[in-house]
Amino acid sequence: LVDHCREYERGGGEAKIPEAVLRRIIADKQRVNVDVFSDARVFTDPGTTRHHIGLHPDILSLIATNRGFPRWVEDIKRDVTKRLSSSSKAHVAIYCRSGKHRSVACAWFLQHFCKSEGWSCEVSHLCKSSWRNTCRGECAECRVPSERSAQREKAAS
């Protein structure tokens, strides 16, 4: 998505990405038919924590306290539940501009919600190979579990 967002001001948060383009991008990364798309660009991109990934407790807190978070939760729960009413699986693609912060954090929240519903949830970060200039989730704060696991769990509640 970085290429599609480059020509927009503010990193492309306002860019409308057609579903066909999203499907092509996902197909290039992984052979899976996506059932639900979720745009994580509605959340603020983290500034001071940009050298971490979305598992950092401060990034999770930033998203969880965003005024749009309750709506995002309602929307994704509705869409996943709808899909699961007619299928045993739901492939969900959560995207942002570069796949390091917002989409990673939102995937963590989705996984947490699925577990609370008693559903199994497997997360695969398709942009993991482009997590350059980040801790790649290996630092003491982003690693799961970490010294800040309690703060991470608080963000989910």
Automatic annotation (TrEMBL):
PROSITE patterns reported in the protein's UniProt record: RHODANESE_3 (PS50206)
Organism domain of life: Eukaryota
Domain Rhodanese span(s) in chain numbering: 69-140
Listed name of the protein: Rhodanese domain-containing protein
Organism of derivation: Alexandrium catenella
